[in-house]
Amino acid sequence: MSVLASVRPARSGRLKGEPGRYRRASLTLWRNILDSLGAGVIVLSPQCELIAINSAAQDLIAGTQPSAEQIGHLMVDNAWLAEMVGECFSTCNEMSVAKVDLIARARRITVSAHLSPLIDERAGLAGTVIMLLDLSRRQLAANLPPGNAAAGALGLSPAGLAHEVKNPLTGIKGAGELLAGLFPEGHRGRQYCELILDGVNRIAGLVEQVLSVSGPQRLRSDPVNIHQVIHQALRTAGVYPGEPGAIAIEQYFDPSLPEILGDAPALERVFTNLIRNAIEAIAPPGRIVIMTRMETEFHMNANGRRQHFLRVEISDSGTGMGEEEMSQLFTPFFTTKPHGTGLGLVLSQQIVGFHGGKLRAARSKELGGMVFKVILPLALNNHRHSGSAAG
How far apart are CA 283 and CA 158, in angstroms? Predict the structure, then answer.
């Protein structure tokens, strides 16, 4: 939950005889207002201690309520922010920067920043208010389907571009197959044709990946049992828990999790990709741990209503990644695999985003490799879940 202990209720319209009730109602209102903002809001004291933070800022810098140590690291890693905070305290002036890189959680995020002094009721300086707007979301919007503003100045959507690429590929592939048939086995000309066909198939595979998530209108909104989706993803990835001599698959599931609304095949692609990534990161005898639980924090949805989330964690015992690799993890075409496309995680992130959720990555403290966390919203009518967690 957001920390808003320092927010004071407005003085007008006080409910006579019920100051405690009024204060609680006012605090809830301000919490809801801040959590409904798309921009991240962080309020620091003159000693740079955390006074308040909203959900958007948590997602940017920590994923949860940040500790004092994390705030300290944020200032050390972002000298521009520390300098602006210091200047805001010394001058009591507002200041802004239109575009700057924010380093947080081993990621580099493009943001715009605006700082304002926090003035108390005695006109004293009580802190500084930092507003951070994630500009990378606007850049990602260029991949949205037709009908969205981010379809681009040319009006060409990813789906349209993919179709334009796919049509000539079909002709190239057919011609390559016919040409290969003119040469005997082992002939250099046939080898060249096979090289062409391999390249065509690789491009066609990339196109299919883009088309598979080219627009949220392609996704269904059906009741989905997340555990059934995970089990199917394990089968698709070719791993079975308890198989002798194979990678150990450990499952810690919360059986009381309610269903979500979503597209089961699309979510299966997400978990299949994450499981395959984990398999490729380790060698037998290694471990993959899959855990499901209720997300312990509440978030505001697009309609301003509080909603519960579930979380799926997939951890592996691989070597993990360095900070530089993690900062580019969700960058299109970035891959650490010899034959990877660099689109798997990007498209998985889009699918999860279309479901109103989030995909996060971090180093696994328990297993030493990576842990990927998929956070998905429960249907609004499932809000009575008790919130117990397994594992």
Answer: 36
Are 314 and 290 in contact, with CB atoms under 8 Å apart? yes
Contacts 24+ apart (CB under 8 A), 36-43: 36/300, 36/304, 38/133, 39/131, 39/132, 39/133, 40/130, 40/131, 40/132, 40/133, 40/134, 41/129, 41/130, 41/131, 41/132, 42/129, 42/130, 42/132, 43/6, 43/118, 43/127, 43/128, 43/129, 43/130
> Across residues 155-167, what is the average pLDDT?
64
Contact 369, 282 (CB under 8 A): yes
Is there a domain that residue 390 lies in?
Answer: no
Instruction: Write down which residue in 134, 163, 187 finishes a domain.
Output: 134
| More confident call, 104 vs 35 | 104
In-domain check, residue 122: yes
CA 215 vs. chain centroid, Å, equals 17
At a CB cut-off of 8 Å and minimum separation 6, what does 372 contact?
A: 274, 277, 278, 313, 314, 315, 359, 360, 361
Helix (H) or strand (E) holding 26: helix 19-36
Element (H, E) at 65: none
CATH code, domain with 329: 3.30.565.10
- The tally of domains found in the chain comes to 3
What's the CA gap between 74 and 92, in Å, rounded? 22
Q: Is residue 42 part of a domain?
A: yes
Over residues 156-170, mean pLDDT: 68
Q: What is the mean pLDDT of residues 199-208?
A: 76
284 and 337 housed in the same domain: yes
Whether residue 389 lies inside any domain: the answer is no
Q: Which of 279, 270, 216 is nearest to 249 (CA)?
A: 279
Preceding omega of 285 cis (within 30 degrees of 0): yes
Cross-strand bridge partners of residue 307: 299
At 120, give phi and psi (nearest 5°).
-85, -175
Structure tokens at 306: 């509080």
3-class state of residue 267 by DSSP: helix
- Which H/E stretch holds residue 239? none
**Statement: the pTM of the whole predicted model exceeds 0.85:** no
For Cα atoms 9, 90, 51, give the angle at the middle one, nearest 5 degrees.
Answer: 35
Q: Residue 303: which domain range?
A: 219-382
- What are the pLDDT digits (tens) for 72-112? 889 999 999 999 999 989 888 888 888 888 988 777 888 88
Query: What is the pLDDT at residue 64?
Result: 67
| 353 in the same domain as 228 | yes
Residues 265, 269, 275, 279: is their CA dihedral positive or negative?
positive
